[in-house]
Amino acid sequence: MRNYQTLPSGSVDRAKGLRRNATDAEKRLWSALRQQLGEAKFRRQVPLGPYFADFLSFSAKLIVEVDGGQHVERFEQDAARTRYLESQGYRVLRVWNHDVMENTDGVVETIAAALNPLSFQEREGPASRSGVGG
């Protein structure tokens, strides 16, 4: 069990609220991750310092952020957030809401490759890997 005592006050309640009010893209990706990548054991809306990770695999140290159109205008804030999360030892993978809704399987493949790049390369061969993660 993770220790939440060092988090800012209200973080756990806010995370619960974010889980209850997930976007359609977050709901779809959560379902796909559980069905197709259940062994990765992702958690949703995990508080990390002053931020919340949309999806986090502690064992792979991988965070998946699902971004909507508002993130185009929030480039600086997202960059600062990514720097913080990376400074905590996590890799951050950003995917667009539109991609999740229109190409869920492709997004899941990209996440699978980020979880275990060696096994993906062995499965697909080196040529396929060049397009993953854009």
What does this structure look like?
The chain has 134 residues and is α+β, with helices and mostly antiparallel strands. The chain has a single domain (14-129), classed as 3-Layer(aba) Sandwich (Endonuclease, Chain A), CATH 3.40.960.10. Helix content is 49%, strand content 19%. β2 and β3 form a beta hairpin. Mean pLDDT is 80; it is low at 120-134. Residues 1-20 are annotated as: Disordered. This is Endonuclease domain-containing protein. GO terms for molecular function: endonuclease activity.
- Low-confidence segments: 120-134
Mean pLDDT: 80
CATH class: Alpha Beta
Total DSSP helices = 7
Specify the helix fraction band: 40-55%
Backbone shape? globular
CATH topology: Endonuclease, Chain A
Structural class: alpha+beta
End-to-end Cα distance = 34 Å
- Rg is 15 Å
Strand order across the biggest sheet?
Answer: 1-2-3-4
Strand content: 15-25%
Major β-sheet, in short?
4 strands, mixed
Number of strands: 4
What would CATH call the architecture?
3-Layer(aba) Sandwich
Number of domains: 1
CATH superfamily: VSR Endonuclease
The sequence of SSEs as H and E is HHEEEHEHHHH
Organism: Sphingobium phenoxybenzoativorans
GO molecular function: endonuclease activity
Domain DUF559: 13-115
Pfam families: DUF559
Task: Walk me through the topology.
Blueprint: H1 11-20, H2 24-36, E1 43-48, E2 51-57, E3 62-67, H3 75-87, E4 91-96, H4 97-102, H5 104-115, H6 117-124, H7 126-129
Parallel strand pairs: 3-4
Antiparallel strand pairs: 1-2, 2-3
Helix pairs in contact: 2-5, 5-6
